[in-house]
User: Fold this.
Amino acid sequence: MKKSFSTLFLMLLFLVSCQEDPKIRLLEQEKEAQKKEVLFKAISKDWNFNTQPINETSRSLTNYWAEWRVFLTELGQKPKSSLGAFQQKAKTLSKRAIELNNNIPFKYDLPEIKSRIAVITTKMNSLNLFMHLDQIPQKKIQQLIQEINTEVTAIQNQFDEIKIKSEIKIEDGEDDMLRMIDTTRAIPTNPNSKIIQ
Assistant:
């Protein structure tokens, strides 16, 4: 009898303790909503990307490299409605950064450009990841936005540098000198081989 009474008492205690007070739940939801609103305002304030081409080379690339133009356009559009809109924008930007590897103009299809695109893609993927966490780290988002701006400026400067270098004329004989310096064309020296005279 004592066992059944204690079991019944424990079950009753368990049921009572599992009851959640709707007032407490409502207060928690209000706190969470206020917290998200503060986060939304902070991210909205920090979400400013450098989307204007900073030099003539970058500007001309927007005319015939569609992926670059779409990336800059997408980067310039700022969400306004909610935190979910920022999450969707981060996902889209991540996708657009990956697409930058498609159809790179031949003149710019170089390792230095590809490595800069890889850095931008990594930063965009990080932004997407942080935006989709349960607890969004606002300071980390702010830092990533600044880093992305730096990388977008760096790739535009790289475009300009490549264009300037391609416009430098080769002097007479420079081509022959470069071929002579090229170690891949040199005669291999093998200490075991004998020179026939």
Helices lie at 2-18, 22-46, 56-64, 66-76, 83-99, 111-131, 138-166, 174-181. Residues 29 and 35 are 10 Å apart (CA to CA).
